[in-house]
């Protein structure tokens, strides 16, 4: 555009009045501004996807970057991942409209469901292709503990305070077995990462820990080249929570339904049967996506209301 403006200027006679020159320069600046505005309008705005942090920010970003790259190719539009440092920051971000889409644990979805388009939801599948999973209480393989009831007087690590599988459901399991976490345990703390919890149990920093069932399989049956610091088959399951839904992919209510449909179509097309998709899904530790309904999370609402 600039070379055309220069050509226009050169077509005018060299002897111009100051007033005439000012008019020409004003016209040229206006044309340049309009051209830049048009160029900016041609560039699509990035699609912003916020992801609930389950481990540290860098690890979470690395896990989901292949998925973001896939969506960018499919939609032909930039995709930006936003990984808040913790659950409260994630909720503040979504509440403030800081991202159009969110991939979150089911309890987080329930807390924020009034902000989403509840008619166009997806839920993730586990690596085994299931749409529900459990939390598990783990101990060392050589631990003398044999039942959940044996945790009385022991030290336990749960997941983040508002984590469904690793905290709320895990504490419900203990309570059902006659153990009040606040009065019958020697103590407990919260930790967001399944890997960190498992490592602490292995190192005997804690007697037991609560993690996700699919994470236990990956951690305990570790393969060469994985990032886990644990030797294989050193942990075992002491008990399991009730089944709960997997993570939810949702769009804010004001997002264009056509964009939601395009993005949902790209996500539900992912399958472990496709070699090109395998690395994308395995990196994020998911098995794909399927359509979901808001009523799928009625059980989560019930559990959360009882925990208040």
From TrEMBL:
It holds the Pfam family Phosphonate-bd. Gene3D superfamilies: Periplasmic binding protein-like II. SUPFAM superfamilies: Periplasmic binding protein-like II (SSF53850). This is Phosphate/phosphite/phosphonate ABC transporter substrate-binding protein. The lineage of its organism: Bacteria, Pseudomonadati, Thermodesulfobacteriota, Desulfobulbia, Desulfobulbales.
């Amino acid at each position: 555009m600039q070379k055309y403006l220069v050509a226009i200027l050169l077509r005018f006679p060299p002897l111009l009045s100051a007033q005439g020159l000012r008019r020409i320069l004003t016209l040229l600046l206006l044309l340049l501004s309009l051209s830049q505005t048009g160029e900016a309008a041609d560039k699509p705005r990035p699609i912003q996807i916020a992801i609930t942090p389950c481990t540290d920010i860098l690890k979470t970003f690395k896990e989901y970057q292949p998925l973001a790259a896939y969506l960018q190719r499919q939609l032909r539009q930039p995709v930006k991942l936003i990984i808040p440092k913790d659950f409260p920051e994630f909720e503040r971000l979504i509440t403030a409209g800081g991202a159009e889409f969110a991939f979150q644990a089911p309890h987080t979805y329930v807390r924020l469901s009034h902000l989403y388009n509840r008619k166009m939801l997806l839920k993730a599948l586990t690596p085994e292709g299931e749409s529900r999973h459990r939390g598990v209480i783990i101990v060392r393989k050589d631990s003398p503990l044999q039942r959940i009831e044996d945790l009385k007087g022991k030290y336990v690590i749960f997941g983040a305070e508002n984590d469904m599988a690793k905290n709320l459901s895990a504490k419900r399991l203990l309570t059902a077995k006659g153990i009040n976490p606040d009065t019958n345990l020697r103590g407990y703390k919260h930790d967001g990462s399944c890997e960190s919890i498992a490592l602490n149990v292995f190192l005997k920093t804690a007697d037991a820990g609560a993690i996700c069932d699919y994470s236990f399989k990956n951690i305990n049956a570790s393969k060469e080249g994985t990032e886990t610091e644990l030797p294989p088959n050193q942990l075992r399951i002491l008990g399991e929570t009730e089944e709960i839904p997997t993570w939810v992919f949702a769009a804010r209510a004001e997002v264009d339904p056509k964009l939601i449909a395009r993005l949902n179509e790209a996500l539900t097309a992912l399958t472990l049967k496709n070699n090109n998709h395998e690395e994308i899904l395995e990196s994020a530790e998911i098995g794909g996506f399927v359509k979901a309904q808001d009523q799928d999370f009625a059980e989560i609402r019930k559990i959360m209301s009882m925990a208040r």
